[in-house]
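Try this one yourself first.
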């Protein structure tokens, strides 16, 4: 996930460079990212780099083909260089579309970064209800539930082929998040999937 954080540093430092060419869809991505971040700030004033990364990638995911063609960006395989480029491309437009919001993000630092965890194992079950939940039997023999609640960085086409993960060995990078469960009327700590790689 560090590659995603790197692109966000460019946004929060307010050092933006305009893209060489303007495309309407880039403004749409920037507008959606602004709205996503604004909504998150309503319930969580102290946003983390991961919160920003989730909004940025979620807003950009429907334009993977265009970004690859126009900016040579592969959203499925973000490395440090392409992550920085994505941050510059979208961040520069956000600075014009929601400058006050972007300026307010300047206090976000690595201190706010959510700790990531890793597990390796085989997917034993896939529960598709409101959200997708992967039941993974780890190499230590323990069964863990991983929740797919947000954009997941992966070289596997998760959105269209997640059912094919059954019985496959995976590496999952996740964060622990406390979310309110209305069924039990209290907060639960869930393992929220951020990165998935096939083994």
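Now uncover the answer:
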């Amino acid at each position: 996930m560090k590659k995603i954080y790197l692109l966000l540093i460019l946004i929060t430092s307010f050092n933006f460079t305009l893209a060489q060419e303007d495309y309407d869809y880039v403004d749409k991505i920037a507008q959606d990212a602004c709205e996503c971040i604004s909504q998150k700030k309503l319930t969580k004033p102290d946003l983390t780099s991961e919160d920003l990364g989730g909004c940025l990638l979620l807003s950009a995911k429907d334009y993977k083909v265009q970004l690859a063609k126009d900016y040579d960006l592969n959203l499925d395989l973000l490395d440090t260089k392409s992550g920085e480029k994505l941050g510059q491309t979208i961040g520069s437009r956000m600075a014009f579309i929601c400058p006050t919001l972007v300026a307010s993000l300047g206090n976000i630092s690595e201190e706010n970064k959510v700790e990531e965890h890793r597990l390796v194992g085989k997917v034993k079950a896939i529960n598709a209800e409101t959200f997708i939940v992967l039941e993974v039997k780890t190499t230590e023999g323990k069964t863990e539930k991983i929740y797919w609640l947000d954009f997941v960085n992966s070289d596997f086409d998760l959105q269209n082929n997640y059912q094919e993960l059954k019985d496959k060995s995976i590496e999952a990078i996740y964060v622990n998040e406390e979310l309110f469960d209305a069924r039990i009327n209290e907060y639960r700590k869930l393992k929220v999937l951020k990165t998935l790689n096939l083994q």
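Discussion: The helical segments are 2-12, 24-43, 49-60, 64-71, 80-97, 99-104, 158-161. The beta strands are 116-128, 132-138, 143-148, 153-154, 169-181, 186-198.
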